[in-house]
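Quick note —
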Amino acid sequence: MGRLSELDKVKSCPSTYVLAINDTMNVLNGKWKLPIMAALGFGKKRFRELERDIPNITPRMLSKELKDLEANGVLKRIVHDSMPVVVEYELTPSGYSLETVLDSMIEWGLHHRKTFIGKH
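Predicted structure written out below.
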């Protein structure tokens, strides 16, 4: 943690850190939000592309999670004025700012799968 020197001085976790973690978890809670964000990390995608990229997600759940992420400012829905109407989803700057977190999670998950899950 980049805040260890501050924590050493205080000897307890500041309440602002706990609130920040809770805020983050409230936005990213659930099974599907991080996979959706990871898929959008590769660029704009349409609904069906997201369905293909994320195995086992139902259209209803994808729709719900996209609405939640949009309401929390993590992604934006872009409606193109065309015939037929084309809708794309894209991460916002706030969503892209989680890229290092997602990269770390991917790295950890790949290592964990190789060293722990592969042995069981």
